[in-house]
Amino acid sequence: MAKVKTRDRILTTSLALFNELGEPNVTTLLISDELNISPGNLYYHFRSKSDIVGELFGQYSHEINDLLAIPKDVEVSLDQLGFFLHLLFETIERYRFLYHDLVNILSRYPELRPGFRRILDSKQKGFQILCDSLANQGLMATEPTIIKALCEQLTLTVCYWESFDSLRDAGNRNNLDPRRGVYQVFHLLIPHLGASASRELYLLAQDYQPD
Amino acid sequence: MAKVKTRDRILTTSLALFNELGEPNVTTLLISDELNISPGNLYYHFRSKSDIVGELFGQYSHEINDLLAIPKDVEVSLDQLGFFLHLLFETIERYRFLYHDLVNILSRYPELRPGFRRILDSKQKGFQILCDSLANQGLMATEPTIIKALCEQLTLTVCYWESFDSLRDAGNRNNLDPRRGVYQVFHLLIPHLGASASRELYLLAQDYQPD
DNA sequence: GTCTATATTAAGATAGAC
DNA sequence: GTCTATCTTAATATAGAC
Asked: Residue A194 CB closer than 7 angstroms to strand D?
């Protein structure tokens, strides 16, 4: 049971607090309180709060880019697609604070803006590859403007689904679940698929059914 | 040219600044500076900053509910649908600051949460009525779970489209345009429509084309 | 109804001892 | 590497004169 480094404990606890309370509501004092360390100690490990946010964003950026590095010639099954989406939602939800107060975060940490845009781009390109794969397998029509709008819609949805879902929720349910996101994205794809694949995905979506 | 009341000028200017800079970045001092009045004067008209935010939310809530009060038995054409969506996006964009830092705003003004959820509900119900109308005209299939997922998707999209659109934008373009939102929503509907209506909406979408 | 001056509070951050 | 004590800054809000 090696002792976890204070620096890493700060990152873990900050992330948890940011997600739970919203980044603007989390002070450096609260973070150090939660860890039972002094504020001075926190500032020994990080020169500023923005360094913490920046490092967490770097982690997110790294994880999401790994996930979205999809080979161009992939032949993806609907099952694999569900698995991929599950991972994607899970990752985004783990860093959900970034999307909860986006304008505020970008205005206070403007250095993150290019990174945010790159991630948006990666997501859209990743979806493009996946749609191309479905099209190549003859499962989906190939009208480029339709596919482009669909990929934008997929990108928007993975970014904001969790925010939307938890807003609807009375704040009571409290149980975050990436499965609802996968269900929703499946229903974005269903009407674009041919009859047989459409039916297959519809049934697969039941496994991700809310409630 | 009747003189506009200070109270109303405060609301108008606050809304503009909130949308431009993000609500958390707009101090009461900045608002009063912008209006060339003293901070004390501002606090004569509003007991607190949250009163300003609350009143603006009330305006938004009122406008959006008026718009979403769609008669149950409406028979809507695709043209009319486009017009409706244009108004809807325009209204939401006029109060876009509310969705830009949602978690932060809800945590600082928790009294707004029920209203937010009611609006979400109105939107989804409004879309349900519109989809029912299309279904009744034989333009769209009627599978209830499909329609429900679609209405959720429409609701998510009208709420977050502008946020998404301006994030992608280098922040350079700067030209807010509800038409891009309408285009996007049309492309959510297109694959659900029968061949003829689908084609019609696809062509209609050209009028709302980006670029 | 509007002003100036100021009280209050709380955040981010640093200095210096241990 | 960690602590306590403190500085600095800035925002919300109030008091009292005009």
From this structure: no
Q: Which positions in strand C are less than 7 Å from the protein's CB atoms?
A: 1-6, 10-16
Average pLDDT score over chain A:
95
Task: Measure the CA–CA gap between B149 and A209, rounded to whole angstroms.
Answer: 11
pLDDT tens digit sequence for A182-198: 999 999 999 999 999 99
Give the whole-angstrom CA distance, residue B156 versus residue B176: 19
Q: Tell me, what DSSP letter sits at residue A140?
A: B
Residues in chain B: 211
CA torsion angle A128 A152 B167 A26 (round to 10): -90
Distance from the A117 Cα atom to the nearest Cα atom in chain B, whole angstroms: 6
Q: pLDDT tens-digit profile of B124-168?
A: 999 999 999 999 999 999 899 999 999 999 999 999 999 999 999
- For residue A42, pLDDT over 60 is answered with yes
Nearest alpha carbon to residue B113 among A90, A138, A171, A14:
A171
CB B109 within 8 A of CB B100: no
